[in-house]
Amino acid sequence: MQVHxxxxxxxxxxxxxxxxxxxxxxxxSAQAQSLTELYDSARGYDASYQxxxxxxxxxxxxxxxxxxxILPSASLTAGLARTSVDITSTPPPGTPNPREYGNQSAGVxxxxxxxxxxxxxxxxxxxxxxxLAEEQLKVAEQDLVVRVAQAYFDVLGAQDNLSFVRAQxxxxxxxxxxxxxxxxxxxxxxxxxxxxxxxxxxxxxxEIAAENDLRVKKLALDTLSGKTGTEPLALxxxxxxxxxxxxDLNPWVAQAESEHPVVRQARLALDVAxxxxxxxxxxxxxxxxxxxxxxxxxxxxxxxxLTSTSHVNAASAGLNFTLPLYAGGALQNRxxxxxxxxxxxxxxxxxxxxxxxxxxxxAFLGLQSGQGQVKALEAAEASSQSALxxxxxxxxxxxxxNIDVLNAxxxxxxxxxxxxxxxxxxxxxxxKLRQASGVLKPEDLQTVNGxxxxx
Length: 455
Hints:
Elements: H1 8-27, E1 32-33, H2 35-43, H3 47-67, E2 73-88, E3 96-115, H4 117-184, H5 190-225, E4 231-232, H6 249-259, H7 261-282, E5 287-300, E6 310-322, H8 330-397, H9 402-437, H10 445-449
Parallel strand pairs: 1-4
Antiparallel strand pairs: 2-3, 3-5, 5-6
Helix pairs in contact: 1-4, 2-4, 3-4, 4-5, 4-7, 4-9, 6-7, 6-8, 6-9, 7-8, 8-9
């Protein structure tokens, strides 16, 4: 005689309701935030990104400093002095003649570089360094996009894992209760009960680990976004994963080799190195400056040589020409140094281009593999579901033992957890591919945000 405690259909419905309740409660929380909302919060809070912003502002000011080298300069001077002298005439006996006089002066001087090739090279360097700072900021922005997305889906993955573990605990508890009842009526051995008890204890341990993992992942997302108690929106079950376009690897690699921010930084660094060579060579060239000045002096009670008050106005204008003749070999060795540094910058550009291409290939192949894994795991989930139903039915009619059902349950929930993680990995992998090729923008989060469940 068989004891039918819980039918497979009812058990599966209870498990499904348990999973939907847990996932639905997380996704529909009143405090749930979308991916773009948490990114906007992290953009104003993350210390690493704020550091990059401050560095960009500093480089902007540095570029303006370089521009000042080719612009005119002006200065204002002023002075005030009081002098006391005691003059004794000779030959003796002389009569001391003490006297005091004052001097007030003011002047304006203006200078304009006419030919200073080193200053011009510095100005061009400043413009390149500003562009370089923009690329550095773009790298920091792309890094923030990926870090927020990774932390976001890490939380969702931990939530799903906990939900599946709890659903498995419910199923194993039902199987344990059935084994105990069947043992009591003599239709099963004590082995079935002990196997179910052992599996139940294992699931309890897995639940504790999953709860702790979720707390850690939420803490990481809170720290990144500057919010407390973050609740990410879950994936919309009705939405598919974004398609990969273009589907050919070559356009991605070509984009990375030419336009990746790191490659552009290396290209700009090479330009700066070339200009540094020009600056070094300019040390052997003459310089020419134009200058003009005006000064006014008021001598009260005269000077040391005169005894009457006087006003002196002086205006001057002219050219300053300088031609370096010999500097002990410093200029020639400076040129050698900058040429070597130019070669280094050229090698760095080659390395940056190759590294970007390799990273893009790796990200592309990883994304393709992830998409294949999603399809395979979707098929495996359906197969595991069918296998569980068959084992439960076989256990009911006595052709399967309890451990077969427990193993089938474990396989099903492991497959579900692996499938959920694979989907999240594909979403993050798409962003990483765009980052590797250098085209990632914050607006790309809108595409990922579109597959999340609405509030």
